[in-house]
Protein 1
Amino acid sequence: MKGQEWYQATDVAQEYDDKRFSRGGRLIDRREKEAVLDAIGPVDGKDVLEIACGTGRFTAMLAERGADVVGLDISAEMLAEARQKAKASGVGDAVEFLRGDAGRLPFEDDEFDAVIAMRFFHLADTPAAYLDELQRVSRDQVMFDTFKRYSTRSIYNWALPMGSRLYSRSEVESLIDGAGLELVEDSHDFVLPYGFYRKIPDSIASTLRSIDTTLGVGPGGDAIASVSYWSASVE
């Protein structure tokens, strides 16, 4: 898995949310949470596993909506931030956080109603093996995102600390089929890559987002998007 050491650095964990989801990055955070909720629907009473939960953005959100959530991450530093976030949100006792490897999940087959993995597969060195594990522990649904090949994401990909794996649609469909999953729904967004939003104030970011959304809903919008959200069911 790319970036394990980088993500486990204490300063990275402590500054992760501020650098990515403040300023214009709030628009990214909002859209990603919307994508998760749209994909898995009402979560009250569901058993949900979040892979690579990081600082717990989605874990806390799902617990607030009544889900029984387990968040797993390789980084003890990220998990420490996630526990603080869950406690501050009033769901500290409703979420279990575990340190572990997504390639060898410490769970029984079919243990969860849904498994989500956001900001994960762009770092995966063996995506098929990881998706097999997600499918194994889910009895109903798997939801994840990818960064898109032949998009604006590739323009600045070289500048990232560990780069990103980019996927074509056919590659993702092949991975889903190979894992014994059935694609239920997919959506695509952000013609402008994430990096544009993280560096600018809210007011400018909102204007850019309006332009971005207009381009995205037009003819060929999906083809020029840089991010894809995938929802699949267990066959």
Note: The chain has one domain: 4-232.
Protein 2
Amino acid sequence: MALHKQAKILNERQEKAVLSSLQSSTYPTRNTAMFLLSIKAGLRAKEIAALTWDMLLTPDGQLCEAIQLRNTASKGKQGGRVIPLNKQLKQALNQLLEESRPEHGQKPVILSRRKSHFPAHTVVNWFADLYKSLGFEGCSSHSGRRTFVTRAAKNIIKAGGSLRDVQQLAGHTTLQTTQRYIEGDSEAKKRIVDLI
């Protein structure tokens, strides 16, 4: 099987650069939420585009503690999953909620400038333009997702979990797929060998 070129993961410096640049964008609240849905929740472009407020809100209109991603918004029959909200993402979504004031739960979270659905291919192009403008070669709409999975894998033991938890957060059907997303770390390998 040939190796496929994967989207590069983002380091913390790059993440901060993206967040800083988004503050001066035309739609800073929406754009920040879109970026954080990728890097802090591991959502695919399709999932960002398909995310509706009813997957995020309680019946009384408050933001939930997790994204309730349905299969229909994801990939395949078992792509739906529950993703706890990262604090930074929750703050961005609360701000977007205040600005959006959705009148019904089926309304998309990410809207175009015409206040209509933001298609998946537009999300892909938005990320491509963002990373290109910052000079991040090899980055794509999948970079945030790969960063999320890699960071989760590196920290899951500290949280008392296992790689199976990372698999479920990513919505992968097999651990093998999850493992392909995880970027190795040469320094960590050196530290592990020294511990043996």
Note: Strands lie at 66-69, 81-84.
Protein 3
Amino acid sequence: MKGKEWYQADDVAQEYDSKRFSRGGRLIDHREKQAVLDAVGPVEDKDVLEIACGTGRFTVMLAERGADIVGLDISRAMMQQGREKARRAGVADHVEFLRGDAARLPFPDDHFDAVFAMRFFHLADTPAKFLAEMARVSKDVVFFDTFNDTSARVVYNWLLPMGSRLYGEEEVDGLLSDAGLKLTDATHDFVLPYGLYRKIPNGIAGELRGFDTSVGDTPLGERLASVSYWSASVLTDD
């Protein structure tokens, strides 16, 4: 996986949330959490798996809504941050953090009601293998996001410490088909890149967000969107 060593560093884990989701980054955090909630639906008493759970932003959020959730990640330092969040939120008994390999998930077939991954596929060296494993262990919902190859991400992608894999709609369609998944919904967002939001105060970011969403609602804006959210269901033999 790209940036494996960087991602697992203790100082990266400690500063991850504050660097990405403060200031205008709060808008990104809110949008991503809403995307997850829209995809997985009501989660009370459901078994959910989050792949690449990182510091537990989504893991803890879903546990607070009644899910029994496993957060899988490669970074012990990131998961330690997540465990502390779960403890502070009073949901530690509904969350299990597990270090593991997304290409070989340690769960039986059809084990979870929903499986999702956020901020993961841009780092994935073998996306087909990862998506096939997500589909294998899910009874129904599979959800993930990608960064897009027709967006501003192309311009500044080289500046990232590990680089990113960018996707087009045709490639995602092929990955879904090969994994035995049926696309149920796709939304495209953030014409303005994430990095811009993180650099400015939240108030100014809110004004820019209004412009961003108005442009994003057009055919051109959809094509230039930085990120896409993909919801799919597992195909059955019925």
Note: Strands lie at 47-51, 68-73, 95-99, 112-117, 138-147, 181-189, 227-234.
